[in-house]
Amino acid sequence: MDELMRQVDGLYERAIFGGEYDDLPEADRALDMVEAALLLQRGRILHCRFLESRVEPPEELGYFERATELYRGAGDERGEALARFWIGCFHQVVRDDNAAAVPFLTASVELARKTGDDLTLSYALRHLGIAAQMAGDHAEARVLLEESTALRRALGFTAGVAANLVGLVYLAIAQDRTADARALADEAASLASSAGALKVTEQIEAARARI
Fold it and tell me: Which CATH number fits domain 2-155: 1.25.40.10, 1.10.1040.10, 3.90.190.20, 3.40.190.10?
């Protein structure tokens, strides 16, 4: 964001003092990307509030949709991948609508792979795995969650690995892999503790009680 705003400042000064107006569309593009990033952050904070209250924030989806439009218009496929993930996440988590979520999550995966954004890819794969798990396709869910987990391990995203392992615990239980479920729960608990991820620790204990 700072770099984009410096770019806008430079283009402004060149126009005001030098009469160079041809590059003003670049200023518009930079400002669109700043606006898109701000909208994503606003939507994410509203998502956190939903997780606490379980009341749908009326502005959340609109923020993510507008961010997607702005990133696409600016030709920023990396940003678009993240915005599309959040639209999919909204439909899945807030509205419990996997049918609406999956196309956005799939598009996010494709764009994240194309742009090399492994963090966004890990999120989109995780939520596609959740959708597959909810549809009863445990084998596909495991493949997706394991790929997401491998990416998160490589990124050093410890809390994210622990969160994914919770899902893999439930899959192991569903597939009667009791020993795997216990081992996954133990590793998840250790990782969550080291990351200070108290909410994930609660989820792990709930999963462990089902083994």
Answer: 1.25.40.10
